[in-house]
Every structure is written in structure tokens, then in C-alpha cells.
Amino acid sequence: MNQSPTATMSFAAYAGVARAPFLLLPITLVAAGTGAAAYLGMHDWAAAGLALLGMLGAHTGVNALNEAGDYRSGIDLKTVRTPFSGGSGTLPAGRLSYRAALASGLTGGGIAVAVGLYFLVTVGWKLVPILAVGALAVFAYTQVLARLYVGELFAGLGLGALPIIGTTLVQTGSYEQVALAASLPAFFMTFNLLLLNEFPDEAADREGGRRNLVLLLGRRKAALLYALCGLAVPGWLIVAVLLRYLPTLALLAMLPSLLLVAPLKWAFRRSQEPVPHPALGANVGWNLLTNVVLAGALAV
To answer: How many distinct structural domains can be found in the chain?
Structure first.
């Protein structure tokens, strides 16, 4: 039975505010956390699947709530959109209402909370810090965290380090050294994912009341911070292998850092100019591929 045009448009609109292409990120994070559990010989596919459901709900929630919040504040009406930044344009185009986007965000967040509560019962109090920071990152990002110069920090935690640590925790029952070591690259990469995407939105964010590191530090210093965090990823992988926190095979996860050539060239030489779209795309690819390669290295 063919789907009606209205239903198709509605699905596309909800996928738009969820920023569906970016939902690959939680998949790679859960994969890395499961790889860490497999490295310890303690992986649990059912727990991993449930963790993935929770992470998809959390990421959908924060994306939709952010779209709703930026539309209401007027930021989405002023951004110069790229394929990687500036929002989906779904609400300004009238393809979905503010209330529907808000409901979508709360639903996604609710799914994440439900999964978190289940794991809290089955795993115990060890999960409390991860769930608390995760809930804060989902429900308070747009209206609070992104206006206090800590949005990038909470992005790195909530959609970087903590999902890897938490995914391993719900499969092994404890905080594991290998998961902590694997989570640090994810922190830097998601931190950078948001930071670089803030450059095209600089003017709109300033008018809309956002307070992020690009506005706080200025373009030159924020670009150098991006470069420092980017280089910290392969640097940490070398250190972690030397200290035997990660297996030698984890050095393969350095290879995707070759994608940093374009964004680093921009950061060091042309930070006052708009970020080239290929650099924005390379930033996303670096993030996803590093998590995937690290997951595979740990699992093997």
C-alpha cells in the first residue's frame, strides 16, 4: 500500500527536526562501548540494543528540542544553513509546528529516561552520575547550557564520553578502564563536532542570546582550541596504548584523523573566513569513523 504524500511529508518533517543523518553518532558510540565490553569478554547484545534505543531517544530528543528552541528564539530564522550546521530549516519552512517539534523532543527524551530507569534498577546506583548528566544535556541544552558557555562541554560528555562508558557499564556491571580510555577520543570529537559547527552560526547565535566558545574566545582562539582538541585524539590513542589502557590494535583508530587535514588547514590559516563545507563534512566523518574503527579494534 502506497504511503500518502501527507504522511511522507510528515515523516520527513519529523526526521528533519530529529536531524536523522546525525543519529549515526549514537550508533557508533554504542558500538565503541560494546567493543570495550567485548574486549573484556563480557558483551551483552540485549543490553547493547537497549542502550542504543536509549541513546537514539536522547539524541533525537536534544535535536528536536534544540530545533524548537532555536525557532522560538529566532535563531533558526537567521542562520545561514549548511549541510552540517544551522538547523534543518523544517520549522521556518512551515513543514512542522513548534508544538509538534517540542512534543517530538520530549518523546525522544522520555524514551531515554525510561531506558535509563530500567538500567538503574538492573545495574544500580553506579549509573546515577551518567543518567543525571545525560538528562541535563538533553533537557537543558538549548535554554540553559548553550547560554552559559558550557554547551560544547556537555555535548562532549552527553554525546561522546558518557555513552561509551555507560554502554560498557550496563554490560559489565562496573566502570572499566578500557571504556574510560576509549571514551576520551569521543569526548574531544563530539566537543569539536559542535564547536566547528558553531562558526557558521556565529552572527545568529549572538543575536539569539547563545553563549558559546566561538563568541567567548573569538574565531581565532576558538579555531586553535578546535585544532588542539583534534590533535589530542591521535595523541591520546598513542598514550593509552603505551600505558596499556587500550590494546595495540587501537592505534588503527588514528587513521581517520587524516580527515583533519582540511579543518586544521582552515583553523591555522583562515579562521576568519567561513568554514569550507568539505572541512565541515570531514569533521563529521572523522568523528564517526574513529568511533567505528576503535569499536572494531576493541572487539577483535
So the answer is: 1
